[in-house]
Amino acid sequence: MNGIKCWNTANNSQSCTFTMTSTACVSTFECMESGLTYNNLKNNTSARNPLYTKVLGQSFDVDVVALLSSGAQSSGYNSSLKVDLVTDSSNTCSNNIIVTKDVSFTASDGGRKKVTFSATDVTRAYPNLRCQVRDTSQNKSGCSSDNFAIRPQSLSITNSNTVQSASPTATATPTFRAGANTSPNADKFSLTAASGEQGYNGTPKIANALLQAHPGAPAVGIVTGVFAAGNAGASTGDNFAYSEVGHFKILPQGLYDDTFTAVDVSKGDCNNNFDNAGDGSPKKYGCLFGNTTDTNYFGRFKPSSLRVDASAVTLACGNFVYYGQDTTPTSAAPGIITPFTITALNSSSATTQNYTGDYARMALNDYTVYHFSASPANGTTLSQSAASPAITKIADNTTPVWSNGTTNVRVRHKLSRPSTAVNQQNVVISAELRDSDNVSSAITALNGGGSPFRYGRLAVIPAHGSELLALPVPIEVQYYKDGFYVRSQGDACTTIDSRSIVMKNYKGNLTACETFLNGTYTANNGLVNALLAAPKVGSDGRPNVGSVDLEVNLGDTVSGEITCQSNASPVSAINGGRDWFGTTDPVGRASFGIYKAPIIYMRENFQ
What we know:
mainly beta
């Protein structure tokens, strides 16, 4: 008879008995770190299903979890899905899909399946991503509750307008004035940091603790300045400055980024280090990334200026000096000695300690680099003393050297004699230092408001006396004042070597060397007393009366010039080395046997 038959295809038998089962519908999806326990966020709103920081160029896994409307994990979900990495938009998934993986769930997956993204699936870094899951057959989708960053592996300096060298030198160019980037006198330089891919848009930093100065440098400076936000994988800053002289390089991790992974830092989804290998299971990478090897050296940097600090000067005559006065074979004292300290400064007025050795570009024993000047000049020329050496350390006569950005010098000068007589006046000696990199000092007075300079001369005063007594011959040291020459009061520095006094033009019964000179005579308050020995009586019984002219050799001798010394025999006169008293040798007559005093008329009044 006709009717309806039931057929069970599971066991190929005729039966109208059926077993009916139902599976709850999937409502949404979660994406989370592979291997971690899923937390139902509807039941526990403070729980998390994290996604950790990833490193570009390395594969990584996420787990996709199918969820019921209650937030519980589905146990029998089977369907085909698309799993996207998308950029975050206001704490949810945007429409900007970075990469998509096709995934098929089966009931045996239990509602959770691992999805692997290969090292080449993501080609650039992203600071804020989410994982999106789409079941297009059921029009269901879900966005990961957590966001995460895919960071670059490293950073490197790819460009700078300074020289980048593996072997820095003290003569490298171009040069930059050292200092802080906030100073207008510091020369700014540029740096470009790049990640080697196109997605980095972060802001790198420089860790000054990880700078290294050029070999032999006593100090490491600091770099000031900031990078701009990155674009297309690179960030440039053009307002950097370095505080020290010479060169510096950046050691590993000295160029770094600590904010690109900010979405993970606050949640502990990365470690506070530079780890690219990952730690634990699942792997946590370092939040930080930077340069992995030493950079080349950057530079060369030079001081911004030199500072001169003067000390008390020394004048040849104590409180004054004569124009032209200097060291000679018979005088140890230069005209004026100016001691001062020099400090190399950056633009912030801090001492640049690396201005030393080859990096100190000022030759301290070269008189010309000081650019000394005298004011008022009065037609004079300021030059280095004939003293050897003319430039020494303050403490001794050794060669001055730079040490940690400072040095001190004692410079001996001669200020030439004007061509015409001038009144005594205070002359200021100044210096304007300049090194071979054109680093200079301000014009600095080395002797305050000036030192007294006198236009001097010597005058031999005629002397008369008995042939039986030694005869003092006054030689007066004078200087020009208001049209006249007056005694140089206070002069206790002028000395006259008796060998420089020519004895000539003998008259009367006085012949050569019947009187003579001896030793060196020193001025007392501007008066030198040369002493002629008493000629007495000759062997013929006649008194040795007469006269002799005494001429003081201020400079070079003339052939045949004779003087007499204590051995009462003629010797050649010498250069007196006193040319600061002029070019005309002073002459005066000493007479023996004249018994009158040098007074024409004298009157005394008594009351």
